[in-house]
Amino acid sequence: MSHAANLTTYQLAIVAPCYNEAGGLPEFVRRVKAVCAQLGCAHEIILVNDGSRDGTLAVALDLASRDPVIRVVNLLRNFGHQAAVTAGLDLAEGEAVVLIDSDLQDPPEVIAEMVAAWRAGADVAYGQRRSREGETAFKLFTAKLFYRLLRGLTKSEIPADTGDFRLMDRRVVDVLRSMREPHRFIRGMVSWVGGKQVAVPYDRKPRFAGETKYPFGKMFAFAVDAITSFSIVPLRLVTWLALTVIALTVVAGVGVVVVKLFNPHYFIPGYPSIIITIVFFGGVQLLALGIIGEYLGRMYEASKARPLYIVEQVYAQHDGRLTGRPAAQP
Ligand code: UDP
Ligand code: MG
């Protein structure tokens, strides 16, 4: 993908979801602004208030009243992190957009490295956690397990140890904005888009203030969203189970016949045939479910209505020179 990274002036948009973050928000904005000042780029900061129950809205509005680069998107109620990020992305106008948590677990200073990667030609510069301070052993373990499972079940290369902390070029943002699936696993959707995606390693910090809004129940639901958004393997497992059951009944059937040839009174009469018939038809019913699942999976894929392809550029001769130009997305 080509982008405006070679221009000397560009606009950076910073999108930060906030849910009960009143305590840390001024410090967050201060540090983001320090980084932008150091980069010397025009910027906007979009604070998405995701139905906070503390004073987050008042704090955000106060910050915005004193700083014209801040816009506050106030959602009517709590829609969840991924929806809040999406609301911010829909409004962001920058040539590059940065997604960052507002609790200062993602250090704003890393944005400078992401911008450097973008200006060197990356379409996406994603933060990859080198270390995680202030997280429980349980969270670290479940996160590791989750990324293993996700990798095994899906075809797309979703990098491990990443969150949504990342910089995306405008073209990636536009594709992402066209993907309106309701169950959103944004980091996966971004890697699905493709292009040049580079990792920027960083050390994840403990929260500046407040507490995590991702207790185990929410994390689990998020993991289910992630796997089901990127894989229809769970549906297909039914078919494999069915075929295994049917194959086993065939083997058992042959075994019974062979045993009976050598020892006709080995089994209680009628018992093997009844059991084998029951298990066999259990397998047939599972297979029917698997076939329905196969079609359901296809309908599910279709209902996500993701773009069928993403054009990098179209190459043709212009004034005798072969030139690549971006094509309009369908
Ligand atoms: N967040 C949000 N809506 C929610 C939950 C969280 O906007 O329903 C925001 C939150 O303010 C923070 C980010 O999403 O900026 C990540 O949430 P959190 O820090 O609670 O998750 P963790 O870092 O513990 O995984
Ligand atoms: Mg956090």
**What is the architecture of the largest domain at the second tier of CATH?**
Alpha-Beta Complex
Number of helices: 10
Write down the overall mean pLDDT: 93
Count of distinct structural domains: 2
Number of beta-strand segments:
9
The helix content, as a percent range, equals 40-55%
Largest sheet: 7 strands, mixed
- Uncertain regions spanning at least 5 consecutive residues: 4-8
Order of helices and strands: EHEHEHEHEHEHHEHHHEE
Within the largest sheet, what's the order of strands?
A: 3-2-1-4-6-5-7
Supply the CATH superfamily name of the largest domain. Spore Coat Polysaccharide Biosynthesis Protein SpsA, Chain A
Radius of gyration: 26 Å
Q: Please name the CATH topology of the largest domain.
A: Spore Coat Polysaccharide Biosynthesis Protein SpsA, Chain A
Ligands bound, unique: uridine-5'-diphosphate, magnesium ion
Shape by Cα distribution: elongated
Strand content is: 15-25%
Oligomer: single chain
What is the SS-derived class? Answer: alpha/beta
CATH class of the largest domain: Alpha Beta
Structure keywords:
330 residues; alpha/beta; Spore Coat Polysaccharide Biosynthesis Protein SpsA, Chain A; 2 domains; 7-stranded mixed beta sheet; two-stranded antiparallel sheet; 9 strands; elongated; binds uridine-5'-diphosphate; binds magnesium ion
